[in-house]
Amino acid sequence: MPDPLTVASGICAVGALLSSWQMGRRAVRAEAEIGHLQAELAAERHAASHDPLTGLPNRRAFYRLATALLTDAAGRPLVAVILDLDDFKQINDRYGHAAGDKVLISVAERLATFAGDNLVARLGGDEFAGLLATPTVDHRWIDHATGRLYDMLAAPICLGPTTVRVTASVGLAPVHGTQLTEALDRADAAMYEAKSLGAARSRRALRDTPHLAEC
Fold first, then answer.
1. What is the mean pLDDT of the chain?
2. Based on the domain organization, do 21 and 127 belong to the same domain?
3. Phi/psi at 204 (5° precision)
4. For the domain that residue 134 is a member of, what is the CATH number?
5. Residues ≥6 apart with Cβ < 8 Å to 55
6. What pLDDT, in 10s, does the model give residues 148-167?
7. Which domain holds residue 11?
8. Which positions are annotated as active-site residues?
């Protein structure tokens, strides 16, 4: 006949093991729930600071991030960029809003490619902005950078069977110290000057082109 003390000890050991197993399962579930809540919080924060269409930072995030970059710039030359698309309403009117969204996404991707690791954002509608760290801020560099950006943005965009070209008016201005708003105002003025002057690059009319094989 088994010793009662041995039986009791065995029951206690089994109970302890069962309790430990249950506590472990509860801990795993708690960790999973915490991870889920943290992921939801991160997603909410990202959604609050990023444009849902293009994935770029939104206006509020741009000013916050740009201010932080200016604080940590350590004397590096910085250039503010403002651009908006020319006659963008024609895209929506002629091809529909889904096509217009595709154009905005393409422009955002090209601007991000142009900027590299630098900050770019969609301020709203067809208006974008950036803050670029540069080797210099002389007029020759700004003119060259403006031309490169025009060329990148003017490349054909495929909309199903149709290929369209859009152009943008672009303004660049050096940032003096931490005066971000002042630099953006000057970039904005340069952008509107380019638009009003009717420069060939920024005022080419929207047109259809033959379907491209890479589309």
1. 81
2. no
3. -65, 135
4. 3.30.70.270
5. 108
6. 999 999 899 998 888 888 88
7. 1-49
8. 126
Average pLDDT over residues 13-34: 70
3-state secondary structure of 1: coil
Are 119 and 131 within 8 A, CB to CB? Answer: yes
> CA–CA separation, 198 vs 91, rounded Å?
19
Higher pLDDT: 9 or 26? It is: 26
Residue 69: inside a domain, yes or no? Answer: yes
Q: CA 102, CA 11: separation in Å to the nearest integer?
A: 68
* CA distance to 7, 105, 133, 137, 171, per residue, from 115 (Å): 74, 15, 9, 15, 14
Neighbours of 62 (CB within 10 A): 24
CA distance 50 to 59: 8
Q: How far apart are CA 70 and CA 160, in angstroms?
A: 42
Strands 78-85 and 127-133: antiparallel
Where helices occur in the chain by DSSP H, the ranges are 4-49, 59-71, 88-95, 97-115, 139-153, 180-197, 200-203
**Residues 113 and 161 placed together within one structural domain of the fold:** yes
Do residues 27 and 118 share a domain?
Answer: no
What does the pLDDT look like over 80-135, one tens digit per residue?
999 999 989 999 999 999 999 999 999 999 999 999 999 999 999 999 999 999 88
The lowest-confidence range among 10-14, 180-184, 191-195, 209-213 is 209-213
pTM for the model = 0.75
Specify whether 70 is located in the same domain as 115.
yes
Together in a domain, 192 and 134: yes
